[in-house]
Amino acid sequence: MNRCREIAGKSVVVLALLLTTHLASFAQQIPDSILKNYPLPELGPNDTIPVPVTIFENQIIPAQSLEWIWVQAPYPPHLLKKREAYNRLRNAVYVCYPYARRAGIILNDINFRLSTIKSKSDRKKYIKTREKELKKEFSDPLTNLSIYQGKVLMKLINRQTGNNCYEIIKEYKGGVTARVYQTVAFFYNSSLKQPYEVEGKDSEIEKIVLEVEKMYSKR
């Protein structure tokens, strides 16, 4: 019996030393002047496993950090639809923005030069020469766009030039041609006269465009 008590007493001493070691490492963050105010916990003969400790409510207690656990849950249907709609819009902007950017540069240059030409006949000649340039550069890639991407492209051209597609066609091809194209767009549930509202319904497009433009600024 005395032998058991001796072994238990030695175990308590060993555990006290281990606990003191943990407190010493913990004391790197908490000054000794604070730690000395807390009594060591009472250890029993079966307390043989050293554990990390912390101070909680004026007591030294065992503490341990748990491993990270990732919790996943299925998207609610309404949020899933929103995400799909956003991904579709983002993809369309990424596809169409290079064309809108290039078209904006060309159209703005055409408008600048037309402002210096007074003769109607000379204006028509100049427009025809630049029209060939536009067809050569954009005919093939634009035919591969979907109807949805075409709608986004019209928005982006409006953003780059400050004019909707109806005004651009009317200026270069005449009012009759513009109305014909507007009628065709109507059957596809679209409009050449649609505005670009940065702070309105097109704010999401604007955010994506700014994201794309950062890529161009790094080139």
Structure in a nutshell:
By secondary structure, the chain is mainly α.
Structural description of this entry:
The chain is mainly alpha-helical and 219 residues long. It folds into 2 domains: 2-62, no CATH class; 77-217, no CATH class. It contains 8 helices and 2 strands; from the N terminus they run H-H-E-E-H-H-H-H-H-H. Mean pLDDT is 80; it is low at 1-28.
Give the CA-CA distance, first to last residue.
Answer: 83 Å
β-sheet strand percentage? under 5%
Helix content range? 55-70%
The radius of gyration is: 37 Å
Quaternary state of this entry equals single chain
The parts where pLDDT drops under 50 for at least 5 residues are: 1-28
**General form:** elongated
Secondary structure: number of strands: 2
Decide which structural class fits the backbone. mainly alpha
Give the domain tally: 2
Strand order of the biggest β-sheet: 1-2
Determine the mean pLDDT: 80
Number of separate helices:
8
Reading the helices and strands in chain order gives: HHEEHHHHHH
Biggest sheet layout:
2 strands, antiparallel
Any descriptors?
2 strands, two-stranded antiparallel ribbon, mainly alpha, disordered N terminus, 8 helices, elongated, 219 residues, 2 domains
What's the layout of helices and strands?
Elements: H1 2-26, H2 32-35, E1 53-56, E2 59-62, H3 77-114, H4 120-143, H5 147-161, H6 165-173, H7 175-187, H8 203-217
Antiparallel strand pairs: 1-2
Helix pairs in contact: 3-4, 3-5, 3-8, 6-7
